[in-house]
Amino acid sequence: RRERQRFVDKNGRCNVQHGNLGGETSRYLSDLFTTLVDLKWRWNLLIFLLTYTVAWLVMASMWWGIAYLRGDLHQAHDDTYSPCVANVYNFPSAFLFFIETEATIGYGHRYITERCPEGIVLFLFQSLLGSVVDAFLIGCMFIKMSQPKKRAETLMFSRAAVISQRDGKLCLMFRVGNLRNSHMVSAQIRCKLIKSRQTPEGEFLPLDQCELDVGFGTGADQLFLVSPLTICHEINSESPFFCLSQRSLRSEQFEIVVILEGIVETTGMTCQARTSYTEDEVLWGHRFLPVMSLEDGFFRVDYSQFHATFEVPTPPYSVKE
């Protein structure tokens, strides 16, 4: 079957684009910090470089303008003359003085004299503006680098989900795993069934979301994710798959979105990993191969068998049948 459009990709990216916002785009500017953090890295780096470059050129021009208006540029080599900023002869020297002041380098060759009140005021303004720009941009870069999105890439989901019997009950199952030794604290998993349907009143819901029970009542949705786990959804009379059989699975169109959330142990930040399974990725009458084995004093996980399944005898009928 030709692959159809997904609501959520296998890597967790949501295929949703917002258009025709009109005047609502101003809301992005009202939350400028979050907008910058959400931008891609290339745009963040471009804004970072442009902001500092423009700020440096503007402030250096202001220092050069003070020297030009006071006539310091023409009398800078006169030992008896007291300029606003010593040893500022042209724009490059004014730019170097600004960089020395902003970066607190202070080579000692250029400095402000006490006979320049406008220079003192500009120096105070430069210090305040530099602190604000540094706090905003460096804070933005730090938050972006510390985002737990990369941590989600070390959380694995099986490529396919399976339907087979467990404890005499028909169940929908998939597997999750953590590749790192650091744990996910308070890990919790949720599942959403996305399927189009029509209400009895005739209203068509193109992407209706329905919750799949993966152990809310028993606490099975709270995971101790130190080794790969098989998540189980029991298909019963309250399940959306109550009427699903092996034959009807071929003609169904649905998508199961899996959301795994937890706190990164090393940073304390909340991390979320997502994936999805379409009807083509649900295998009827299959079971996952074991991946755990007992070695000399420890348990070993064989991730080469993480996605592997094998067929087991399973009735082709739905739970309702």
UniProtKB/TrEMBL annotation:
GO terms for molecular function: G-protein activated inward rectifier potassium channel activity. It is found in: Membrane. The keyword Ion transport applies. Residues 155-320 form the Inward rectifier potassium channel C-terminal domain. Coiled coil: none annotated. It is a multi-pass membrane protein. Residues 8-148 form the Potassium channel inwardly rectifying transmembrane domain. Gene3D superfamilies: 1.10.287.70, G protein-activated inward rectifier potassium channel 1. It holds the Pfam family IRK. The record marks D134 as: Role in the control of polyamine-mediated channel gating and in the blocking by intracellular magnesium. This is G protein-activated inward rectifier potassium channel 1. It comes from Serilophus lunatus (silver-breasted broadbill).
